[in-house]
Each structure stands twice: as C-alpha cells, then as structure tokens.
Amino acid sequence: MLFRVDPSSPVPLGDQIAACVRRAVSDGSVAPGERLPAARALADSLGVNVHTALRGYQRLREEGLIELRRGRGAVVTAGASPHRARLLEGVRAVVAEARELGMTEGDLLDLVRAELKA
Amino acid sequence: MNRTKLGRAFLAALPFLIALILALVLAVTLADRLPARMASHFSASGDANGHMDRGAFLLTTVLIMALLGALWAWMAARGRFPGRSYDGFAAAGYAMAAFFGYLTTATLLLNVDVSDSGPEASFTMWHLVGACGAAAVAAALGLCAARLLPPSPDEPKSSGQDGARISLTDGEVAGWARSATSWWLPLTAGATAAVGVALMVAMGPAAGVPLLVIGVLILTFARPNVTVDRRGLTVSGLLPWPRVRIPLERIEGATSQDVNALSEYGGWGYRFRPTGSGVIIRSGEAIVATLESGRHFAVTVDDSATGAALLNTLVDRRRGRH
C-alpha cells in the first residue's frame, strides 16, 4: 500500500501514517488479511523515527483496523471494511468539530448517547 | 506461430536433439559392451561412487535433454526477444546441450567393456574441462547460427517518462510496500532444508550444511517484500539481507506489465535474461523498471500499477523534472 507523509504539515507524522491506512481501507485498495510493512521497515522507508511509525500503528490497532503481532508485523483485521474505515473518519471529524466549538468530552458523549437513544 | 518463431524454436531445440540422438546412437551401438549397472557418478578423485541401471541412465538422459529442449523451444517461440537478444539465449542453450551431451557421451564411453564385477570406470577431471570446452565451441556455433536469423524489431524505447505518475506535493515523502505470497516458495525452502538435514545425517555435516543454508535463505524469502521509496526499488526477505535493491539513480522509469514466468524468464526465482533480470515468483502483473543501462528489472507483485507510478514520480523528482 501507498504511504505518504508531509513532514512540514502540522499534523503529527504518526497520525498521517494512520490516516494513510484508514484511507486505503476505506477506498478498498487494502483488503482484510493484507500484511503491512513492519514498523521498522516503514520507518526506514519514509525516513521517520520507528516510534513515530509505531504510534501510527498503535492508533490503528485501537481503532480495530489492524492487528499487531510480534515478529509478524501488522495485518489488516478481518473486520476492517471500507464501511468501518469511513465511520472512523466520520467520528474523527465529529470530534474535531466538537473541539473547535469548545465542547467538553461529557457534552459530546451526551450528544452521542441522545442520538443513539433516538 | 509465424515462420520466424518456428525457425527460432527449431534452432533452439536443435542442440538438445543432436545431443540426445548422439547419446542414443552410442548407447545402441555399444549395447553389448556396456555393463548392466553403469558407473554414473564420480568423486573428485575420479573414482565411481554412484551407479545406475543402464535403462535408468538412458531414461534420465532422454528426460533431461527432452525437457531442456522443450523449455528452450517454448521460450524461443513465446518469449520476447527484442533486437539481437535471441542470439545470446540460443548460445546459452547450445552451451548447455553441449555440456550435458559431452558428459553423457563421456560416461557412456567410460563404461565400455567394464564388467559388472571388474575394475571400476574412472573419470578424470579433465572431462569437466572438455565439457566446458565443448560448451564454449557450441555456444559460438549457436551464436553464428542465430545470427543467420533476421533480428526482431527493437521494442519501442520507453524511457518511462510516459508512464503513470502520482501527484505529490513538494515536501511530501512517499513509500509503497507490498508483500507477495506464493505457495511454492515455503515448500521449496522446506524441501531443500529437509534434503540438507538428510544428507547431514547420512554423510556428515559438510554434505548437508550448504543445502540447509540455501533452504533457510529461501525461507527468509518465502514472503518477499517489494518496496518503492526514496531509496529505489527493493525486494527483500524476512531479514535486512540478502536483498535486491535498484537505487533511484539507476532507474529511467517503470511500467506495470503482465509477464510470463516460463516463456519470458525461463522459470521462477531470481532470473537473469539477456535483456534484464527479475524476481519472478509467478506469472502476472509486475513492476518492470527500465534501467539507465537499457536493461530491465522486473518484480512480480500485486497492485504493481501504484508501485510503478510512485517509482516514476520519485525518479522525476530526483532528476528535477516535473
């Protein structure tokens, strides 16, 4: 898969790496079960720190898009559908907008809960 | 199949056919002077250390020659040989046929009048020199014969500048990576290592260790990774080394093409051809890079279009053309 990062952008590099994978899953260019390069190999390839690459991968693991296994690198999970990736992108957008409005975590969660009950 | 291709296939198969007929004629005329169990394998000092049934020996010879001849004919008919690249391919076939033909003939002659119980046939290392000499002479003959055929038109010179691109902003760093899977690589690695272990148990460490090492080496390449980034085009295994890397400065451009392992590369693995080399683990789509030397480097991998496009973009950027 294609990774592209811009070191001059204000977005942290780890987040940029995560965004690449999310985008690739959502447009279907990466399928479940596909192996991504190991964090070290990815870091060498892009010329970034290993911890930066790992931070990006850990983020993706928290989102359930990849599994990280010792010695086996990163594998796109079976549940990583384009749909799920798009949902994650939506959630990120909502959180960013809430932050811009100055909402607290509680305020936002209340809104989400109200929507879920509706 | 047109006439040129038929001519090429015939010319490529010819040396194997000649070697085969020569060995068979010799075996038939000498039939009553050959022992039932022929010495077929020799140690470095020239003593026979392996024997084979006469029928089995001839069958093996026929099979090897027929298979090699068929492979060469098939490649000559199906492969792409721009310009005069067919000549080198034909010469290599002639050399191989002469080498095996010489060794077969020498083995047959050495076994003449050797009784089943009498003194063993012996094989001096000079025969290997003779085989190499025969191969060199045959290669020259093959080259001359191939020269008589008209050359193919050169493939359109694609400098790669017409290939696809990916739009990158100025500061952006990009890398593409994909791992290729194959069912036969781990199998081959396992089989090689197993034979190595068996040899080690049967004949001591010296006999088995080389095969074991090769088996392990293949195993690290069971799932080769193909990477395109600021360093160039890299094919690597599990470990950082060994790997094949073509740096960006040696690359003119790249395209995504369908390649055929058998007819274009003569098989699978790390292949060398007159027009270039390649890591070929299957037939199908591949990144084919044109190098500055005019040769090609191919690697079979899925989603090769993206890899090739990024390679073109990075080469452009390096040369300051946009």
TrEMBL record, chain A:
Protein origin, superkingdom: Bacteria
PANTHER family (UniProt xref): GNTR-FAMILY TRANSCRIPTIONAL REGULATOR, HTH-TYPE TRANSCRIPTIONAL REPRESSOR YTRA
GO molecular function annotations of the record: DNA binding; DNA-binding transcription factor activity
Keyword Glycoprotein part of the UniProt annotation: no
HTH gntR-type domain boundaries: 11-79
Keyword Cell membrane in annotation: no
Protein name: GntR family transcriptional regulator
Keywords: DNA-binding, Transcription, Transcription regulation
